[in-house]
Amino acid sequence: MTYLPGLSQPAPPTMVAWSSAMTAYNFGPGHPMAPERMDLTARLAKSLGLLDLAHVAVVAPEVATDAELQTVHSPEFVAAVRRVSADPASPDEARGLGTEDDPAFAGMHEAAARIAGGSLLAATMILDGSALHAVNFGGGMHHAARERASGFCIYNDSAVAIQRLLDGGIARVAYIDVDAHHGDGTESIFWDDPRVLTISLHESGLTLFPGTGFANETGGPHAEGSAANVALPSGTGDAGWLRAFHAVVPQLIGAFQPEVIISQHGCDSHRHDPLAHLNISVDGQREAATAIGNLAARHCGGRWIATGGGGYSVTDVVPRSWSHLIAIAAGRPVPLRTEVPNDWRAYVLAKFGRDAPELMGDDVELWWRSWEVGFDPNDAVDRTVMATRKAVFPFHGLDPWFD
After folding, report:
1. Which of 38, 61, 111, 159 is the most buried (most CB within 10 A)?
2. Which of 243, 216, 228 is nearest to 186 (CA)?
3. Residues 190, 199, 151: CA angle, nearest 5 degrees
4. Nearest-CA neighbor of 137 among 302, 280, 321?
5. String of b and e for 129-150 (b: at least 16 CB within 10 Å)?
6. Is 143 a catalytic residue?
7. Which is catalytic among the residues 73, 109, 143, 202?
């Protein structure tokens, strides 16, 4: 391993899945899932020097094969994606292809399968030991289900990676999803598999797509307690979000003892995101990524795969949040008061005609109450957390009332 100046621990061998070919995942002008999100993230990470670190390998993913996709998707669904990809004028709305959320476009199959290929590459490198951490910021397509595309997601790359890990001999995988939207597709694919723990921290389905992800959704009959959902009230800010995270996630990970953690870091929880109603900062998102990396170090020998996900504030939020994710995975965290590189800001101004943020953080003061201080029944976030703890903790031998 490579030692970094000023750090007492060796930097983890880290893989970043990236190629400009990944921007072919493009639903067209005006669609919120703008491919520029990925390009801007790669450019900012490069400007920050993260992609040039000696222990970081940037690897272009291949297009996943049909056989690889069919480990979690049905052959009929993959065939349908191929048909619509070849003839976008003939959508298959019953399978979510050619809808307002997932418009059909030529080359859809190859573009989506390449995104999946990035997370497959991450799983393969974790299995063979060539990487301890891996990041596919173009991934995180968590709404895609076995038989259907949904919510801007065609193939579920995280699910494909989880299955690759299981098939490679990993006994237990934990999936942690901090996107503003419920990770319904990933949850559904492993709903009845006790080897996979899915945890989703999201805005309540009462106010946000896909309308699911409540505390009573806890897994199938052969895997009770394998799904945990924290459905937060609209408007929840850093303090509530991080309180909820630390009141549920570390306890479940400690009880489940996964061998690998896969996390989804949709940054649409940000206060400036146009599609959700949470009030999180880049600082808070960075804190959650740090916490997940620490959980991987504590319980999984460091083995961690991180993906992107949602995030529709294309210039202001997504590149900063995901560059922090890359930096944390690489063991080279970027301080929040770091100035955003001038060359990157100039590029954003020239291409988009708008000023980019000046700092890598939002200059907020992060603070949250530990669950140890007690449950407040008058607090909406606390009621949500307690509902989740009561629903799931007993399956893992945990007391809902005490850590």
Report:
1. 159
2. 228
3. 70
4. 321
5. eebbbbbbbbbbbbbbbeebbb
6. yes
7. 143
CATH number of the domain at 12-396, please?
A: 3.40.800.20
Instruction: Specify the pLDDT at position 155.
Output: 99
* 278 contacts 236 by C-beta, under 8 angstroms: yes
pLDDT digits (tens, 9 = 90+) for 338-357: 999 999 999 999 999 999 99
Sheet containing 133-136, strands listed edge to edge, beginning at the edge strand earlier in sequence: 56-59, 14-17, 133-136, 304-307, 260-264, 173-177, 196-203, 227-232
For the stretch 71-95, pLDDT in tens is 999 999 999 999 999 999 999 999 9
Give CA angle at 234 (270, 282), nearest 5°: 15
Cβ–Cβ < 8 Å for 246, 237: no
Q: What is the pLDDT of residue 191?
A: 98
3-state DSSP of the chain: CEECCCCCCEECCEEEECCHHHHHCCCCCCCCCCCHHHHHHHHHHHHCCHHHCCCEEEECCCCCCHHHHCCCCCHHHHHHHHHHHHCCCCCEHHHCECCCCCCCCCCHHHHHHHHHHHHHHHHHHHHHCCCCEEEECCCCCCCCCCCCCECCECCCHHHHHHHHHHHCCCCCEEEEECCCCCCHHHHHHCCCCCCEEEEEEEECCCCCCCCCCCCCCCCCCCCCCCEEEEEECCCCEHHHHHHHHHHHHHHHHHHHCCCEEEEECCCCCECCCCCCCCEECHHHHHHHHHHHHHHHHHHCCCCEEEECCCCCCCCCCHHHHHHHHHHHHCCCCCCCCCECCHHHHHHHHHHHCCCCCCECCCCCCCCCCCHHHCCCCCCHHHHHHHHHHHHHHHHHCCCCCCC
Domains of the chain by residue range: 12-396
Q: State pTM to two decimals.
A: 0.97
Distance CA 77, CA 159 (A): 15
Contact 21, 117 (CB under 8 A): no
Q: What pLDDT is recorded for position 147?
A: 98
Write down the pLDDT at residue 4: 37
